[in-house]
Amino acid sequence: MIGTIFNVCMILVGSLIGRFLHKGLKPELQKILTQSLGLAAALIGINAVVQNMPKRHYPVLFIVSLAIGGVVGQWLNIETHFDNLVNRFSKPDPNSKTNFAEGLATAILLYCIGSLSILGPIQAALKQDYTFLFTNGMLDGITSIVLASTFGFGIALAAGAVFIWQGSIYLIAFYLQNAISSSMVTELTIVGGILIFASGLGLLKIQKISVLNLLPSLVVPIVGVLILQAF
Length: 231
Description:
Layout: H1 2-24, H2 27-52, H3 61-76, H4 78-87, H5 94-112, H6 115-127, H7 131-151, H8 158-175, H9 182-203, H10 219-229
Helix pairs in contact: 1-7, 1-8, 2-7, 2-9, 3-9, 3-10, 4-5, 5-7, 5-8, 5-9, 6-7, 6-8, 9-10
């Protein structure tokens, strides 16, 4: 768990630095930072999809995952519950609430759904190799500065999600070493890349997509690959 702890610490440090920058940033600078982050998120999402599409063994699984996950997420109304929870701790300005909720959701996706964040804990658990996690920690630290300077120190809450996410992957990989396949990681990364791209579109105000209601889509590839590999 050394790599995961390092990753979490970098997010906290980056968020703290970004919080101090937030005090001196003009609305125009905050706007351009948000747009920059939106472009980065969209590019990261596209890159994740493009890199992993040729490796996939189940061509339509990501489509099924998004469909099933979207239906489940809409039924659970995840976005509304999440916004209500976030709004309890955010500013009274409605615009600030929406932006913070969107920013926190983006942070969680950017930190958790990526090749380094997925493969890092697996490498650490199976080979005691922390290279991916250390690299990911440095990238997340820089991202946190940009996020926190735009959305505030509340972005540090994403560190908890990172710890749970990477810690869970680490424990699963450690205890189920023979059950993890490259196909599962590939399919999960494709779906995650699509969600990151959708989040980027929202930040750029091109298209508002209920990314939070699509989060259950991340579970479907894991279950789907396990079922398909059983036959």
